[in-house]
Amino acid sequence: MTREEAEKHHFFEHFKTALDCDDLRNQKIKAANNKSLKALKVFTEVLGYLKDDALETIKAQAKEGEFTASDFTWVLTIPAFWGHPAKRFMTDSATQAGLVTKGTKGKLMVVLESEAALTWCLKLQSDGFITQNHSRDSQDQPAGAAEPDTSCNDPARSQEAVQFTVKPEETKVLLETQRDGKRYLVVDCGAYSHFTVHEVLEGGAMKKLHNDSRYYLGGRNVDEKFKQFLREIFSYEVWREYEEKFPKEVQKMMYDFTRLKHLGEDIQISCPGNLVMLAQKKKEIKTFFDSVEGASWDDGSIRISREKLKSFYDKSLQGITGKLREILNKDFNIGYIVLVGGFAESQILHQNITDQFGPQYKVLCPLRPQEAILKGAVELGRNPKLVES
C-alpha cells in the first residue's frame, strides 16, 4: 500500500475498549492517524467484513447450496460491564452490517464474554484444563485430551499447546466443576482484565451475580512495559522516529513479543533492519545495550532475560491479585477461579494466581484459553437456555 493509499484508510487499535458506554450513539473513535469516525460506523464496517468473510468461507467449504446471512444465528460477545445500551448498540451495528434485518433480529444473540467462556469451560473434560504439571514442549494437544465437538475446534497454527499429567484425585476435583449450584469467578484476561462472578443454577443455566469494570491490568499493560523498555534502550528520539516512519514494523515487533511473552523464560526478538539503521546513525548498535540491565544484543536480535520479562508483569500481577482478593472477600461463596483470554496463556500469570489462591480455591484455565469465548459463543448459539435471561 502506498503512502497516498494509506492516508485514505483508518487504523483502529483496541477500538472496542475505547467505547464509552454512556453515549454510544454519538461517540467517535480516534484512529492512529488522529482522524475520527463514529463508533457505529466502525463497528458496522467491522461486522460487515466479518459477515462477508464468514459467508465466503462457508461457501468455499460447502459442497452444495447457497447461503445468506439469514440462514444463520449470529452470536456477538461483549464485556460483562457493558449494559443494555451497549447491547442495543451492537444490535444496531449488526443490523446495519447485514447480519440480521428488522424481521430476523431473533437470529442475533448478544452474550457476555464471561458467559461464553464459562459455558465452554463447563463442557470440558478434566484433561481440557492446564494443571500445575505442564510444559509447552509440544505444538499438539496431548493425546486423549477431550474437547466437545465444535466447528471452531481447529488448533491455532501459531499457538503452543500444553502437555500435562492429571492424577486421579485431580480428575475428580476438576469434574466437580460441572455440578449445579457452583459459583465461579471468571477472570477474562485480554488486553484489559474483567472480573465476573457467575452461579450455575439447577439445570445448568448461568446467572451473573457480580461484575467489575475493566482494569488496565491485562496483556496490553505488559506490552506497553516492553515498548517503554525499547524506548529506554534506543532513546526516545530514535524510537519516536522509528514509530513514525515504520509503524508496520513496530506492529510486527509487538506481535512477536505478544507471542513469546507467555513462555516465562528468556526470549529473543529479531531487531528490524530499519531500527538498526536509525540507531546506528547515533552510535554502534551494541553500545545501546552497555548500560541496560536485563537485555543484550545477540547478532541481530534483542535478548531479554526471564527476570526482566517478569518485571513487565509486576503491575498487572499486583493489580489482578488485589482485585481477586477484594472480590473473594465479599463472601460470594466462590469455589473456583477460571482464567480465560489470551493473557491467561502466560505461565507467569497462571503460576502467580495458582501460588496466591491455589490453597483456598481451585484455579482452572482451559487449554488455548484465548479460544474459550469464541467456542463458548458457538455453544450458546446452539443452546441459548444456558444463560438465564
TrEMBL record:
* InterPro entries tied to this protein: ATPase_NBD
Q: Positions of the region Disordered?
A: 133-157
Q: What is this protein's name?
A: Uncharacterized protein
